[in-house]
Structures are given as C-alpha cells and as structure tokens.
Amino acid sequence: MDLRVFWTDTARFQLEEIFDYYKDKTNLKIARKLVNKIIDRTIQLEKHPSSGPKEPLLVNRKFDYRYLVESNYKIIYWIEDNYIKIASVFDCRQNSGKIKDL
C-alpha cells in the first residue's frame, strides 16, 4: 500500500528557513537544489514507510518517530493512518538534544 507524504507546518517552515538561508549565503540555484534534495529524499517513504531508523531521542513519544538523512539534515517523520507525516527537518550541526523539543 502506498502512503502519502504530508509536511507539517513546522517542517514546511523549517524548509523555507533552509531555503532562505542558502539563498542569502550562497545563491538561488544552490538553495533550490538543497531543498529539492530534501523533498526528493522523502519520496521513498511512499513505498517504504519504515525505511528510516527509529529516532532514539524520541522513543518515549506518542508516535513512532523515524528519520532519514539528507546532506546535513535529519528528516524526522512518523506514520499515521494513510500518511507519512514529516515532523521536522533538523540541522544535524545543532545540539542533538534540541530534537527532544519536537
């Protein structure tokens, strides 16, 4: 069964912040390329929703959080009903403890 990927408002906002940062620090082409790579990475989840490992910092939560890595970013998601919900696009260069703030 194929599931649909749904981006939460938080994840969309983070993706916009990533785009804006790279657009300002590098250029528009690099910003688009990075954001597209992050989005494209989630496509595999439609057919293989459990392909990402469980996020160890979020094991005691209501949902079973998993993640994928693209570049310096951890794409954190959970599966609910017929959706894969992208919870966050976390910059791995940050303190990993910030993941618990999800």
Write the layout of secondary structure elements.
Elements: E1 4-7, H1 9-25, H2 28-41, E2 66-70, E3 73-80, E4 83-91
Parallel strand pairs: 1-4
Antiparallel strand pairs: 2-3, 3-4
Verbal overview:
The protein has helices spanning 9-25, 28-41; strands spanning 4-7, 66-70, 73-80, 83-91. Helix 1 (9-25) runs antiparallel to helix 2. The chain has a single domain, classed as RelE-like (YaeB-like fold), CATH 3.30.2310. 30% of the residues lie in helices and 25% in strands. The termini are far apart. The chain has two helices and four strands; from the N terminus they run E-H-H-E-E-E. With 102 residues, it is of the alpha+beta class. The radius of gyration is 13 Å and the shape is globular. A hairpin with a 2-residue loop joins strand 3 (73-80) and strand 4 (83-91). The protein has a four-stranded mixed beta sheet.
Summed up, what is this model?
With 102 residues, this protein is of the alpha+beta class.
Helix percentage range: 25-40%
| Overall geometric form | globular
Number of strands: 4
Name the helix and strand elements from N-terminus to C-terminus, one letter apiece. EHHEEE
CATH arch. level architecture: 2-Layer Sandwich
Average of the residue pLDDT scores: 94
